[in-house]
Design a protein that fits this description.
alpha+beta, Jelly Rolls, 3 domains, 22 strands, binds heme C
Amino acid sequence: MKSRLVLGMAAAALLAAFVAPRAKSSPKLETPGPKPIAYTPRAANTLTFNKDIAPIVFNNCTVCHRTGEVAPFALTSYAETAKRAKTIANVVGKRVMPPWKAEPGPAYLDECRLSDDQIGLIKQWAAEGVKEGNPADLPAMPKFPEGWRNGEPDLVLEMPEAFTVPAEGRDIYQHFVIPTGFTEERWVSAVEVHPGNRRVVHHVLVHLDVSGKARELDAQDPGPGYRKRGQGFVSAGLIGLWAPGNVARRLPDGIGMPVPKNADVVLEIHYNLRGKPEADRTKIGLYFAKGPVDKRMRRSEVASRINIPAGDDNYTTTASIPVPAAVTLHAVLPHMHLLGRDIKVSATLPDGQELPLVHIPDWDFSWQNSYVFREPIRLPRGSKVTLAARYDNSAANPRNPHSPPQPVRWGEQTTDEMCLAYLNFTLDAESITQGRSIPTVRETLSNAGEARKKKQAQ
Ligand code: HEC
């Protein structure tokens, strides 16, 4: 991981530091989240589904709890909700549902957490015998976009053929190569992933390859795609990802992700095995940037080495990366596997002030969300980003995949562990429209390599 770290934001920002003017105005520090609203009990037996509960359920639950979505049952009517009132009161009370895992911190897009008052209302309504109320009070169901969440994509790319996931064995990381055929560089604003079969697709990463290596690997491997630990090529960019609960969003105007001419899209799909063969044909929708792009969205990561002893119920680790040039952070995506219990990512400003970025105190592998800041967070040069994580590798952890517990290290299998957070950021010094385009570290290294080769050839 060390090498990837070095290739990460630290190095990107170091390069940028040469061209970065020091930020003059002080950065905006306050990004407060929603204020907690305390519960005040209502007059006994006055709460009804139509008036008090439906607005909460329709706005916070039906996005997943409706036909064809990820949740196992619908919550779109009185009958469906009343029947499960006790369980609902229980899971919302414990904040298991809605599955928003982050503590209040900076405000995030799509933040979905109930206030104490809303939880109190549901509990009181359930305890008082689930009254339905006056049909005239029932609010309309929110309108959910069918199909593509960002509207019709500019370009849809699909796995060339279906892949059959076998019934049993270890998790599979399969790579599928799809040529873009772009004759010039294109700027992309969003990549929406549509898993073909949600029973087996655990997550999808959308990489770019410009080396032709992925094609070669595909040609060598019989059947659809190829299987490999790691990608087998140097990714020219991670332009999209999908995990349950994640919805791709268009980047703000003026920010884009470049897709080089002739690039291949490589879908890296992590499949779970379900005891019977399942077919999957995943597709992605590309949305091109609408106006001129001034800044490139970059991705880096802060990661920590891990070596978790068997039986350790409180294994902790921390890691930091420096920020040697002014950046603006747009999103953070923490990632651990089954033993992970708590993960916290924060920024420390040069004056020592700490800014929380995300804290998930009760990590759940099922919900790998990207946390997109409602207001992007500026980090001046000299800041650092720190990750702190805690793992439970004891027999008492019901999610421990090993019985008895085994020592666990970094690895790709779900039963291995990881410890990282991706950071999406832009460089404040970059302005492509004004001719200040800053290459990524990989581009710089690869250009240097080309130059060296040329020199040697002379
Ligand atoms: C982001 C998607 C999502 C949202 C939003 C969501 N749920 Fe769920 N819910 C799920 C999924 C998926 C499951 C199944 C979880 C599992 O099997 O582990 C579930 C399970 C449940 C269960 C069953 C839990 C159990 O232990 O049997 C209840 C009850 C529930 N949800 C209620 C709600 C309520 C009430 C809301 C809104 C306040 C809500 N959910 C919002 C996805 C969601």
